[in-house]
Amino acid sequence: MADFTRRDHSELEASLWRLYRDFFEQAERKRRWSLSELDGTPCNKNLDPAIADVVESFCAVELYLPDYLAHAVHRSRASRGEAWFYANWGYEESKHSLALGDWLLRSGMRTEEHMADLEGRLFEHPWQLPHDSHVAMIAYAMVQERATALNYRNLRRRAQECGGDPALEKLLMLLAVDEQAHHSFFLKSVQLYLVQDRQSTLEQLRRAMNAFSMPAIYALADGRQRVARIKELEIFNDELYYQEVYLPVLQSLGVERSEMRNRLPSRKSAAAGSA
After folding, report:
1. For domain 42-260, which architecture applies?
2. What does each C-alpha distance from 35 to 45, 124, 175, 201 come to in angstroms?
3. How far from chain centre, in Å, is Cα 138?
4. CA pair distance 59, 127, nearest whole angstrom
5. How many Cα atoms occupy the beta-carbon half-sphere of 120 within 13 Å?
6. Which of 26, 126, 134, 196 is most enclosed, with most CB atoms within 10 A?
7. What is the model's pTM?
8. Would you call 220 helix, strand, or coil by DSSP?
């Protein structure tokens, strides 16, 4: 499918710009937070190391931010609403990466040397786009952001069950709220594309949603072990993806499962991480 030619869709572009302005104004009024808000909030030095392992995996995914942005800005250059959104999104995701890394160090779960080594290994293997279609990538981001919010919510619950960690719990709550706001922007964007060309957009939804996997984790040398740990803690898995991401997204979009060709998400679809 050829992606929409934006210059021929001024109404779509005007709607995307309004969507961005609404997103930005809501963020400025209600959602902005700073790293300093976490200062002084205590860490649990005896927290289960498995929780720190998952935090590190999510931090690793966030560290691919330069790759995500390079692709996103290039794809969206012709759309002011989308391009300006990605500029804002990149700022917020960079803050997520810093906050997760800071917690790993403050808690004593990781050292500066370990984190430097992790970053070095990550930058050896650039992240590649999972889809060649702009609309498919918008749909992919819509699903990925909801899945990431779910990851943070469930990790927060596991941390509480393992004795609690006030700093990590506060951090994960802030991150989950941001990710849900990102999801909302992408979902509303997909709704606009469905109005513009429903059948073509549905085809890209099928591509993005029926074989979805979270970004970057499998690119790591120990990616399979990281995914296994996330599944063991029931933070994210195939069933959670289907019940708490796939079905709610279709309902929000007003898309019937029959329009997705009655295909359940691939059993290979659920890998864990964040964006």
Report:
1. Orthogonal Bundle (1.10)
2. 20, 28, 12, 38
3. 12
4. 15
5. 6
6. 134
7. 0.89
8. coil
Q: Output the six-digit token pair for 100.
A: 């997760």
Backbone angles phi, psi at 206, to 5 degrees: -60, -45
Where would I find the H helices in 162-220?
166-196, 198-209
Residue entry with tokens 């079905």: 247
Q: Domain limits of the chain?
A: 42-260
Neighbour tally for 1: CB within 10 Å: 14
Q: Give the residue from 205, 274, 207, 272 showing the smallest Cα distance to 241.
A: 272
Helix (H) or strand (E) holding 53: helix 49-62
Give the C-alpha separation, 242 to 16, whole Å.
28
pLDDT single digits (tens) 74-108: 889 889 999 999 999 999 999 999 999 999 999 99
pLDDT tens digits, residue range 43-55? 999 999 999 999 9
